[in-house]
Amino acid sequence: MHEPIVRRRIEVSPDDPRDLPGDLAHRASVAVRFGDTDAMGHVNNAVYLTYVESARVEWWAEVTGEPIIREPHRSESLILADADIAFRAPIFHGDTVVVETRATRIGRSSLDVEHRLTAGRAGAKARLVATCRSVIVRYDYDRERPVPFTPDTVARIERFEGRPLRA
User: Fold this and answer.
1) Most distant CA pair in the chain: distance in Å?
2) Where do the H-state alpha helices sit in the chain?
3) pTM, whole model, 2 decimals?
4) What's the whole-number mean pLDDT along residues 56-73?
5) CB half-sphere exposure, 20, CA atoms < 13 A
6) pLDDT digit string (tens) for 5-35?
């Protein structure tokens, strides 16, 4: 089971009033590949959501113990229902992106998640590059409809986040 962690926020330079307040419980690092960049020399805007997706999948597996993978005996998993991203600064090849993730609300079958993306190079202070709010839904792919989260899944998420989230 997940042990309580000391939450530390990655400091960014300069402070940005558009940043998400408070700590985020999960952190995932992504190395920027040359192929992530576009003709302008920075990471293409669509790739930001790929970084968020990778972090969200890692967060879900760590928090719930359930990988997001379609298996023959299991029809339920997650589906992305909504994503709203605010771009703050460009990302470049050679940067490392850190995606911090937290759940903010649990509904019957939906889960609101926030992500904070920072980027930088080794030894340099990170810069805020984006924030993202997304909604994921527990989904039965065989029946093609949302299904409720189990009480165990809700308990695991709330325990990891350190607060009640049920709407």
Assistant:
1) 50
2) 45-64, 151-161
3) 0.87
4) 86
5) 26
6) 445 566 775 677 778 888 898 999 998 999 9
